[in-house]
Design a protein that fits this description.
Two copies of one chain form a homodimer.
Chain A: H1 52-71, H2 78-89, H3 95-102, H4 106-118, E1 122-126, E2 134-138, H5 140-164, H6 166-183
Antiparallel strand pairs in A: 1-2
Helix pairs in contact in A: 1-5, 2-5
The first copy, chain A, binds a DNA duplex through residues 21-22, 37, 77, 79, 94-96, 104-112, 115, 130-134.
Chain lengths: 184, 184
DNA sequence: GCGAAATGGTAGGATATAAAACGATCTCGA
DNA sequence: TCGAGATCGTTTTATATCCTACCATTTCGC
C-alpha cells in the first residue's frame, strides 16, 4: 500500500510520469531535476499506517460525515443529536451530567443549548432546590425532531454495521468501550 | 447499565437519595416534589448505548486526549503530528496531497502550515514546474521534533494496543480501515 | 494556440471544542 | 452557624475544522 522501507529520496524523475506529457524537452543544458508534488495515491504513511490512533481518527471522521449527510436537512450534527437523545431519555438532566454523558466539556454546552433553546427544541428550568443548575427538557417539537433524527441515525448505524459485519460487531463495540473507559 | 424501557418519568424522589442528607424534613405542608438533576452515573443513553457511531466518537476523544497528554510539552497535537510525519516520509509533498493523506480539508492546512513554518519545523518551496503548488520539507529541527514525537506516539500506541488486546488488534485495525474506505 | 475547465493554495465566515477564570450557590466539617 | 472548598453554568480566549468563494496557474479539447 505504501512504499517499503525509509522515505523515498525521489531524486530521479521516472520516465513516463504523467507530468511529462506536454513538456517539450528543454534544449537548455542539464536542468536541475525538480520534484513534482507527490500524487495522493502514492503517499508513505510511515508508522502511521500501522497505528490505531491515526485510523481511529479517520474512521471517526468518516462516520461523522456519513451521519451528517443523512441528517443535513435538519441541520443537526452528531453532537447536537446526542444532546437531544440524552435530554429526551433523561428529562431534567443537568448540563454537567449532560456534558459527561456526551463526552464533551461543559463549557461547550452553553452555545449548543443556546442554539437548541432558540430553535424551541429544548427548554431549561431553574430549580429551587439548587439554584445553580438547570433542568433540561425537550419540547414537543424537540421530541418530534428527535424521532425524525433517530430514524436517520438508524440508517447510519445500518451502514456502519454492514461495514463492520455482523460477526464482528459486538467485539468491535466492546473494544471501543474499553478504549473509552481505559484511556480516560 | 442504563434504565430499562422508556424514559424514567422521575416523579418521585427515592428515599435515601444523597440529596436528602442535611435536609430537615420541612414542616410546611406537602412540598411539591422537585427533580434533582440526574447524577452522571445514572444516565440513560437510550439507543446511543448500542450505536457504533456514538462510541466511535467517544473512543476517538479518549485516544486524542491520551496522545495529547503524552505530547503536551511539545505543544503538538495529533493533527500536527500527522502532518510532520507525512512531510517527513514524503519530502516535497504538496499541500493537497497532504490534506488527503491526513483526512482533512486543504483549507485547514493553511493556518497549520503557517504555524509549523513559523516554528521553523517545516519549509515550503515554490517549484518552477507548477507555480501553483508548494513542496513541503522538514527542517532539521522538524526532523528532530518528529523523532521525539514518534517516541511518545509509540507509547500511546502501546497503551491502545494493551487495551485492544493482541488477539484483536489486527481485526480491529482492519475494521477501522473498512470504515474509512467504506463510508467515504 | 485558445478558451474552458481543472487544480493548488488562500481568505472569510461559521461551528465545535477545550481550558482557565469567574460569580453564584451549595455543602461540609468543626 | 460559619467559612473553606466544591459545584454549576457562563465567559473568554485559543484552536481546529469545514465550506464556499476566490485568484493564479495549468491542462485539456478542439
Amino acid at each position: 500500500m505504501h512504499r517499503a522501507g525509509s522515505a523515498n529520496p525521489r531524486n530521479v524523475r521516472t520516465a513516463g510520469s504523467p507530468r511529462m506529457r506536454a513538456k517539450p524537452a528543454p534544449r537548455a543544458a542539464r536542468r536541475k531535476v525538480r520534484l513534482p508534488p507527490l500524487p495522493a495515491s502514492d503517499i508513505d504513511l510511515g508508522p502511521l499506517a500501522g497505528w490505531l490512533g491515526f485510523h481511529l481518527r479517520l474512521a471517526q471522521s468518516s462516520s461523522f460525515q456519513s451521519f451528517a449527510r443523512l441528517t443535513q436537512e435538519f441541520d443537526v450534527r452528531p453532537g447536537r443529536f446526542a444532546l437531544l437523545m440524552l435530554i429526551g431519555r433523561n428529562p431534567g438532566i443537568s448540563q454537567t451530567a449532560l456534558s459527561k454523558a456526551n463526552g464533551r466539556d461543559k463549557s461547550t454546552l452553553t452555545p449548543a443549548l443556546a442554539d437548541l433553546t432558540r430553535r424551541r427544541l429544548v427548554t431549561r428550568r431553574r430549580i429551587s432546590e439548587d439554584r445553580r443548575s438547570y433542568q433540561l427538557f425537550l419540547t414537543p417539537a424537540g421530541k418530534a425532531m428527535l424521532d425524525e433524527l433517530t430514524e436517520r441515525a438508524k440508517r447510519h448505524e445500518e451502514i456502519l454495521e454492514r461495514i463492520v459485519g455482523k460477526a464482528d460487531r459486538a467485539r468491535f463495540m466492546e473494544i471501543l468501550k474499553r478504549i473509552i473507559a481505559g484511556v480516560a
